[in-house]
Structures are given as C-alpha cells and as structure tokens.
Protein: DUF1294 domain-containing protein
Amino acid sequence: MPLSPANAFYLMMGLLSFLLMGIDKFKSVRNQWRISEITFMALSLLGGAPGVLAGMLVFRHKIRKPLFYLGVPVIYLFHRVLMTPLLLRILIEAGIGW
Structure:
C-alpha cells in the first residue's frame, strides 16, 4: 500500500533525523565537528521528531539534555495531535492526499 504524501514526508524527515543523530554521535565520540542542537530541534519542528527520539534511544545520544528529553517529545505530540490532521486535511482538500 503506498504512503500518503503526508506520511511519506514524515517518514523522510524521521529517517533524515535518525541518520543525522547517528552521524553526530559518531563524531562526538571522535571529538570531531558536530551537528548543532538547533539543527536537531529544527528537524523536530519540521516533522523529524520521531527520528530524533529514535536516535536518542538507539545511539544513547543527547539523552541527558532537558531540551531533548523534554522538548522533542512535546514537539512529537504537537505534530501528532495538531499538525498531521491539519496537513492531511489540506492535502485531501487539494486533491493530493487520500
């Protein structure tokens, strides 16, 4: 079954966020250049919160920072409760989604 455009968008954002969390953890262990926290928060706000949450758990990365262990779940709930239904409604009314 194909994904709706909204679900495809959230899947892509989640995968990108998860991948970047892994890269950042890899770089942090090696004391290399890092991806900024604001980038992860922006990705979360743009729909990548599930990927950031998964990356936090899988890579045990940024799990001690309140901005992440409190902020990212709040952003995730914001998207699930408000943004996803709104985006789906807009897409359906435009004849793009189903």
Observations:
- Residues 5-93 form one domain.
